[in-house]
Write a structure and sequence with these properties.
single chain, 1 helix, 8 strands, mainly beta, five-stranded antiparallel sheet
């Protein structure tokens, strides 16, 4: 038996395997609440900085550039430019287990305005092997929206 710090041995330690599978309730705050309220009208909202005019999407209270409070909400266009992307081949299931995806999928970083931050979202309607940085994409909404995260279903080539 190997002795460690202060006489502790390998048998002294308990190493349980604890699967993380739980529901976490998270208060989204007033900015994300307004963001999702915009979804009810199929609008994408961002918060605009009064100092540097940068737009955060999804909106947040403080500007990441100059740290000013951003109280103005602005509507962003439904179309934007794909600035970067990755092709996924696995999905995470409940409990954190990774499984092979049914088919490759694209997650993209989309710029909806020259002054706006990038919005991470799914990109569909294009072969993952043919996706390219700089392609124009547009928002695709669910037919019936409820002010929920999943209302903005995906982006597709414009």
């Amino acid at each position: 038996m190997k002795e460690g710090v202060m006489g502790a041995t390998e048998e002294t330690f308990l190493t349980p395997v604890v699967p993380l599978d739980f529901t976490y309730n998270y208060y989204i705050g007033q900015y994300l609440t307004r963001y999702f309220e915009g979804f009810k009208e199929k609008k994408i909202l961002g918060s605009k900085c009064p100092g540097c005019a940068k737009i955060a999407v999804p909106p947040r209270k403080y500007c990441g550039v100059c740290n000013k409070v951003m109280e103005e909400m602005v509507e962003l266009p439904q179309e934007g430019i794909l600035e970067n992307f990755t092709v996924g081949h696995v999905v995470m299931e409940k409990g954190g287990k990774l499984s092979p995806a049914e088919e490759p999928y694209v997650l993209g970083l989309i710029r909806l305005d020259d002054n706006a931050s990038l919005l991470l979202h799914k990109v569909e309607g294009v072969d993952p092997g043919k996706v390219s940085v700089g392609m124009k994409v547009k928002a695709v909404w669910k037919d019936q929206v409820e002010g929920d995260y999943w209302d903005l279903d995906h982006f597709e080539p414009a």
